[in-house]
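Handout, section B. The chain below has 256 residues.
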Amino acid sequence: MEMIEPTTLIILGLVAFLAGFIDAVAGGGGMLTVPALLSLGLPPHIALGTNKLAATFASSTAAWTYYRKQLFSPHFWQLSFIATLVGAIGGTLIVDIISTEWLEKALPLIILAAAGYTIWHPQPKGEQRQLPTDDPKLKKKQWLQGGILGFYDGVAGPGTGAFWTVSSMALYRLDILLASGLAKAMNFTSNITSLITFAILGHINVALGLTMGVCLMMGAYIGAHSAIRFGAKFIRPVFVTVVVILAGKLAWQAWF
């Protein structure tokens, strides 16, 4: 890849900071960072791998923040960890065998679908600040949810955090803060798993990923604290605004 101009790096850093903030608030930071990396002319495999390196910074920062605020219980969600890990490995391996040409055409559509689902899917109103009952039905939900979303994060990634938040509120009747805490921890699990797999396959631009990762981490730190402080009334409008703008931009690029 050619050397990136300093101005371009600064813009990417700002995009990454905003993406880290958005991702920590409601998920979906990849809807900003993946198109930004693709705009540099990176092959889709490299763009996805580099995004995983950068995203791991953000998801680890956000997950740790929610854990410290006692909004996530690792022991209770251990089956979700395992299912997400397995799904992420499978998804990342699938990416490696998909042709670059097919991936270039599919990625904008995947991002648009993720954006549309997040905006128009009705938001369940999680009202309880407690964990669900631990029973066989819960375990099945954890396996299914973790496997599917881990696989999706391994294949593409954009919108995974938002999908975790929405589905966790619907499946377990969690309030949005507990659902966000679960989303950040599982997003970190699939990110680090995919990152290791991408690294083994050689699909990462390390310098670019680290640069964006530091900016994502700073944005994630501020975003997670803002979400915890201001709650759902803050989370929803911020996320919807950004996704609407991005969805319009992607639609224009893909079809006009």
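Note. Residues 72 and 182 are 6 Å apart (CA to CA). Compare this with the example in section A.
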